[in-house]
Amino acid sequence: MTMAAQERRPEHISPDVWLRVGRLSIQQLVGQLTAFGPFMAQRMAGRSLEELVAEGGVGMVMSIADLPHGFLRLQELAVKNGQIPLLLAGDFQRGVTTVGPAGIGAPCSWNPALVERAARRAARQMAIAGAGLTFSPVADHALDTKQGRNQEGAAVESPLLMGDMVAAMVRGYQGSALGPPDAVAATLKHWLGYQYTHGPDYTDSGASRRLLLEDCLPAFQEGFTADAAAVMYCFTTVDGVPAHASRYLHDLARSLGVKNLIFISDYTGINELCEFGIAGTPREAALRAFRDAGIHIDLNGDAYRTYLPELVDSGSLALHDLRVRAAEILQLKADLGLFEHPFKYGRPHEAAALAEHDPVMTELAEESIVLLQPRVPNPDVLPIPPSARLLVTGPLAASKRDVLGEWCGNAALPEYLDRVVTFYDGLKATWGSDNVAYVKGADFERLDETFSEALARAAHATHIFVALGECWDWSGESKARLMPKVPDAQVALVQRLRETTGVNIIVSITAGRPLKIPDVMQQCADAILWVPQLGTHAGTALANVLSGQKNFSGRLAHALPCHEAVTSGFSHRQPRIGRPSLPCNPQTFEYNSKGWGAYFQELGERGSLAEYHHGEGYSYTDFALTHRMLSGASLSIAGGTPLIASACVENIGTVAGKETVQLYGHDTVAEAVPRRLELLAYKQVDLAPGESVEVSFAITPDMLAQYGIDLAEGRRPRPDLYPVYLFIVRHAGEAEAALFSAEPQLQFVLTR
Question: Which of 182, 522, 528, 725 has the lowest CB atom count within 10 Å?
């Protein structure tokens, strides 16, 4: 009997996997903890990826060209040489060759079921291409609009909404089990608060543990509850300790109950512990990453492959711990079915499916577009009639690359970029090439040589569509912007068009982060659309909603600021302060009144720093919320019957539409400073003209759970004598307006 067989097998490792691990040399064990792409293998290890695969020196590969054939050649090499099957991983977050909306876009659908369907479709693409693990979904959201990774992980203000989206993506990727052909392993990232820096990447998060637990943790918890297979660390520090060496973050993730959770480093994240100044050598970095952060996979760093054998030989690490760590990787591969079917991933005979039209991605793109203006339906503006003569202009109007955004898989490669439907393409296909003219008019930061032609063409149009916003590479990793805004030249384009013609001007803003919509644009444009980077079928989705074939149903998952200098702190979830611009507590009215002090001196007295609010969006019809009711005046945390909050929703317009009814809570007094508002629940309803329906929400104590003064007590309901206000509204702005008014609220007391 081998030494490995005599060692105690962990309960979450199958006997077969434990026997396989017992047959591996130390170098092969370490190989299972090593991930490389071809370039980084040569650069960091001085070896070709093929050499490492043949000798068992790598267990996960990435950045493989010529999918699926390139991966299959490597897998054949591993199998031929008797090595453990490889796992291909990658940043295929939205698909491989055809992609859906970016991370900042899909949550604006407020439709987790649709997001799950899109993720399932993306997983099928990944499996055909060869990827069995994806570095997605992103569960941490951005605090600051300067942050470049808003685009990837979104700027979703509500932990509830973010958690629903994350869980939906995990379910879509993994299905009910990892064994079926199209199931791929999901990786939650970036654990725990990568995007909570104020601007540049890679710095200290600046977030307190309370902020991380209240804002970031809930979305990860939902992903873990959905049984995500892996988690990737963030590049930043928490309480002065880089995530890649944080025992606190490791233990916190372990406490959430996933049996075989795989911890993955970010790209060379282990090596960077030396730059952070907490490890003097790469050897020390490898030790801390393995011992303290519990990392399984060293991503492109080569620290594990180089130093773990030596650390075991010297007694700094136990061989048993190395075997367990490798066994957990093998268990994931077993769950994916790679031992029985090593060529499960990478199916050239199905490659035609990668080029198929993707109705689910189109539908998600349609539902991610948000109509911001007009707020009241105006058929003279939208939808655009079939007889219209359109001028299409602006820097994003005919751009294929910019509507994809960053992290778009292989969709931006030359051989696949032609599949992208630009805004101009989509409008031309719907209204006909004879009725649609395109003139660029402006680049991203300057009016270009075609500007005069755009003005001349405007005189012959009945409608002008102006596509504005950010270049695709203005957002992404290491893409912080000091002053994120719509560039002045683009604003000037709209102004000059308005001066030239009296026809309807429809403006779309496409960006990888929330932006201030300039006041002058709100005055000059007849309609304004928030059009996040929609992916391959962007133009088709846009044309479908502008023509009225599909009604607008998107709602902002993130507020848009009231001023370009406001890059953070405009969320409805801001913690309350002692000197607010408008008071929440009636007991303070006596001294906290107009003229008492200048709190937001540059912005005036505002209840919110949002111009367009969380959950806001409009359509071709209108809805009314009436008859708000609450079934009781108290709710016991001991259990029993939930309270029921309800309202009547009526479509008071002339066309069918979808409304997202939102329930917000405001805790008047709490043990620790409460948020101004918290999204507690939401429901979408489809209504025909004149149709009405009662929407109800069951209020349970867990929905009111909070952290108290002692974080170690965890998040739980905390009864007190003071009421909780409830607001059944169309968006957070309506809840804020009601909160700051003297109108009676739905309210109840949480009791023991």
Answer: 522
Residue 130 · residue 88 · CB < 8 Å: yes
Answering whether pTM is above 0.90, one says: yes
643: β partners: 699
Handedness of CA 36, 39, 41, 47 (dihedral sign): positive
- Going 287 to 288 to 294 to 299, the CA torsion angle's sign is negative
- What's the CA angle centered on 518, arms 513 and 524, to 5 degrees? 130
Domains in the chain, CATH or no CATH each: 26-349 (3.20.20.300), 369-561 (3.40.50.1700), 573-607 (no CATH), 621-751 (2.60.40.10)
Tens of pLDDT, residue by residue over 481-530, are: 888 999 999 999 999 999 999 999 999 999 999 999 999 999 999 999 99
pLDDT at 602: 45
447 strand-pairing partners:
442
**Looking up tokens 């000197």, which residue turns up?**
579
Please check the confidence at residue 582 and state whether its pLDDT lies above 80.
Answer: no
Q: Please write down the HEC assignment for all residues of 500-532.
A: HCCCEEEEEEECCCCCCCCHHHHHHCCEEEECC
Alpha carbons 176 and 374: distance in angstroms, whole number: 43
| Phi, psi (rounded to 5 degrees) for 465 | -105, 120
Distances (CA, A) of 592 to 228, 526, 570, 598, 737: 48, 39, 21, 11, 17
Question: Tokens 């649609």 belong to which residue?
Answer: 436
**Nearest to 296, CA basis, from 244, 338, 334:** 244
To the nearest 10 degrees (0 to 180), the angle between helices 451-458 and 488-500 is 30
**CA angle, 149 then 150 then 156, to 5°:** 140
Banded model confidence at residue 593, pLDDT cuts 50, 70, 90? low
CA distances from 329 to 190, 229, 322, 574 (A): 20, 10, 11, 41
* C-alpha to C-alpha distance for 139 and 107, rounded to whole angstroms: 12
d(CA 451, CA 528): 21
Residue 639's pLDDT band, with cuts at 50, 70 and 90, is confident
Residue type, 417: L
Chain segment 14-66, per-residue pLDDT in tens: 999 999 999 999 999 999 999 999 999 999 999 999 999 999 999 999 999 99
Higher pLDDT, 745 or 219: 219
Tell me how far apart the alpha carbons of residues 352 and 647 are, in angstroms, rounded to a whole number: 48
| N-term to C-term CA, the chain | 59
| Cα 469–Cα 474–Cα 478 angle in degrees, nearest 5 | 155
Please count the residues of the chain.
752
- Give dist(CA 353, CA 367) in Å, integer: 24
pLDDT band at 4; cut points 50, 70, 90: low
Q: Which residue has the tokens 């751009």?
A: 399
What is the three-class DSSP state of 362?
helix
Of 332 and 566, more confident? 332
Of 147-161, 458-472, 572-586, the least confident = 572-586
CB-count exposure of residue 2 (10 Å: 0-12, 13-18, 19+)? exposed
